[in-house]
Hints:
This protein is α+β, with helices and mostly antiparallel strands. α3 (184-197) crosses α4. 15% of the residues lie in helices and 34% in strands.
Amino acid sequence: MLTWDPRDARSWFGFGVAGNFAGHLEQAGEAGDFATVVTAPDAPKGVFPFYVPGIGSYLETFPLSSDEVRLPESDVPLNLQIEPEAAVLFRASYDDDGMARSLEPVAVGAFNDCSIRRPDAKKLSEKKNWGPASKGLAASLIRISELDHDGRTATLRIASFLRRDGQAHAYGQDSPVVGYSYYGQVLLDWIIDRLHHQMGSDDTPLEPVGHYLRDAGSPEHVLVAIGATRYTDVGESTYLVEGDESVVVVYDADVTSPEQVAAAVAEGREASLEAASVLVQKVRRA
Length: 286
């Protein structure tokens, strides 16, 4: 396992992949945002930034936490949802122009791409980073050296839960990590292509993430959230409130069954799960 240091992580660059799990955007009410984005039938919609160090905007606020979700300051109710994902830490290399050339997987783990459902947001990133502890990353990640369908991640699964009033509810559908629409080398090649060619425009929620990466100094490490799973009925209809706990688990199905993961979370002993990356965040006011 790899334990990350928040001091080191401040030098990372963070971005996500939108629409990499069939049906998630429709459940999240965001499919319409991409109406003008043309992609191959099964392809993700694009990439979006959630942490850009040194860019001089709200995106340079360090958002990662392994133990809390901090609610945004607001005078009106905001609809926040857990977005349970696998996140991959990569070591990046760059060409002479500072643009990403390749991504080498280092570790994978549980991630909460917690999002505000803002129907008036112009860019997807406006729903992603509203301040400290607006994103979740498990303190311990699973070391990997490749991202192949038949490699170390072949037996990994993603499960997520909402704990409220002493009860645990499945929030996202328990799903295989290799079940993403794009995965392995196909995903890596697609990400590099998007970093070079996705420019964004006023009529899409996308931005020139590759240029942001270059302008951030072409950092050695990038953290990529590779897509949120589909919601259960509870996840699709339930928003976070103060006192809730968000639980996301990336686990090895050869070691632990989905039923064992659900039982451990229900009993509050998810930290004892073997061969698992576990993220538990308490929802608190800012």
